[in-house]
What we know:
The protein has 179 residues and is mostly helical. Helix content is 82%, strand content 0%.
Amino acid sequence: MAATNEAVAAAKIEELAALFAALVLMCLLTFRSLAATLCIILPLALVSLLNNALMAMLGIGLKVSTLPVIALGVRVGVDYGIYLYDRIEAHLHEGLPLREAYYRALVERGAAAAFTAVTMSIGVGSWIFSALKFQADMGLLLSFMFFVNMLGAIFLLPALLAFFLDKSKREGEVAISAT
């Protein structure tokens, strides 16, 4: 049992490192921006950290069966950030200030992200009432990750973007070259 626990602990680090490396690579290839990649990945990393804290608080150990659940929560959670960032970026390229670009992105994708997160959270959250402890624990963890990843995309992503954007892009100034 001790050997299994050690293997699972090592696998967790490898699995999450591989998962986040793949997400970083795909975001870099898609958006061609380190700032965009960080805006999408940092909320996911924070939620993963919070998920570990929740597991510790609830006494849910890291096991062979819980490891894929953590990866699933990250995998589903990245979608919210990608959908929202994609629309914000499109509106910034139109010359809109960040505030307006964010508002329009929320109008276009925010309701879909919230609906998806709430629907999935309620769906797997119903597992909490299961007589099987594992299923109840996983329902709680997945519900938490689905919902909090959506909150991270809606609230933390634009805050990070405001931090990374230079002032002219935040305020919607379009640079006009003198020719």
